[in-house]
Design a protein that fits this description.
Chain lengths: 304, 304
Amino acid sequence: MSVKSAFVSFIQEEQHRICSSLEILDGAARFGTDEWQREEGGSGISRVIAHGKVFEKGGVNISTVHGLLPREMANQFGVTESRFSACGISLVLHPVNPLVPTVHANYRYFELYDQQDKVKDQWFGGGSDLTPYYIFPEDGIHFHRALKSACDRFSPDWYSRYKMNCDQYFVNHHRKEEMRGIGGIFYDYLRPDDQFSERLLLEFARTCVQAFLDGYLPIVARRKDLPYGDRQVYWQEIRRGRYVEFNLIHDRGTLFGLKTNGRVESILMSLPPRARWEYGFSPDRGSAEAALLPYLQPRDWIQG
Amino acid sequence: MSVKSAFVSFIQEEQHRICSSLEILDGAARFGTDEWQREEGGSGISRVIAHGKVFEKGGVNISTVHGLLPREMANQFGVTESRFSACGISLVLHPVNPLVPTVHANYRYFELYDQQDKVKDQWFGGGSDLTPYYIFPEDGIHFHRALKSACDRFSPDWYSRYKMNCDQYFVNHHRKEEMRGIGGIFYDYLRPDDQFSERLLLEFARTCVQAFLDGYLPIVARRKDLPYGDRQVYWQEIRRGRYVEFNLIHDRGTLFGLKTNGRVESILMSLPPRARWEYGFSPDRGSAEAALLPYLQPRDWIQG
């Protein structure tokens, strides 16, 4: 079996398993299923949960698309016009309770082909990151430690390298470098070599997905029943506005999807259910909300 | 007085006059005033109204900025690196009542300088467009007729040309060419020539601003007290999500502002107070909401 087929099996299994876990945790809502075809080649399955007891909106999507790489993307990758295939799993969960963080994960595999349809380049990419609205330091430590354990099984360097990538990526540059959340890991253009075979890199993605579940689900379980009120919901909506800004202005995955004529509903599934923009909003000095921004600055989560 | 100075006086006067009119119409909230400086050169005055009786959020901003044109913008204009100045007035109003449309207007004047700081190019740009949530055909006719009268005072061709520009510009291309609203007029790179002096083009901008007020204020007055409920607010939030998508993904003015290190709060003042994204949302068949999208397709408003 080719690594591409193996990757497709992996994301199909994970989609099923993750949705089951999340449905049990939610206890009320179920995931719907939308299968779709892409006109230029490929297909996907979007699974979406909405108005749950725990999850206000969430999606776990898989897709396998192929065709001719758009010129703009070819330029970005530094290649001439090529045929490509891309498969991946992408997940965003926006919980009801503002004390539960939003989470995002995405793992993908990419191939470029030469004129004889031979693979001329291939790489893996992926990452998981956490976006809290309120500060619980132990949550950040737990989430990052789970990801570090996953990385450490493959290379002692990877966690620190991919953690730094993540800190540099999920940034609202237009807001004076404001961070989207507390990060996690992010890697891209990870190509097989003598040390890391393509099978090993597939195992790395699988391990990261497992670590994402181990890192996130206990946080949800612990925070989902904490009391909150209008003030917390208001702040959650303000912060979700920043999430929208990042996804529509800066996120390469979103722009790639929109430029390759991807399925809009699946791509924009990542947007929060509600968002708010207040001119010149600033949280009260000394409040829990005001403490969030400094807390989001990149830090060492492993030392605690 | 240079045309640039005259344009600056014009936008200062209009800002004052428009805010006064809107405050009277609102009857409850007042516009706040924020003066700001741009580090690389220039300044602005943002006037914002929020949580009014009629206007949930609105801004009337003026700015005069100058400096070195960012490379990306220079490429777009087809010039080498140049010093530039840009001044303009920009306005967005998001009413409380979903039966009152959102409106946007922007009028600006641009100069590029040669190495001796002589003006080597100059142009005017601007436009006004209306974004209803519910259909009142007479509102669309009234709005467009006001703009047509303004254009007709200068040239018999302009309304149809600038109306078409507007229909082509305010489009969410990533949503199968979904229209943002019912348009209005939009012009750009309008350069003085033998027939239209720079003073005449300034007068055109002034006439358009007046037409915008004449076209919009009666609509607000007529719809603001109509009854509505949760269903209408929900739909308003869904449609405002599309407004956010257009502004962050497609709007050249927003991207120009963010890329020239403009004042973020003033640029993103255009975003609605609240927005909502529901996966796969589709209005009930036969409902007033379902009728909106076909209604937004470009049409002849003058024949009615």
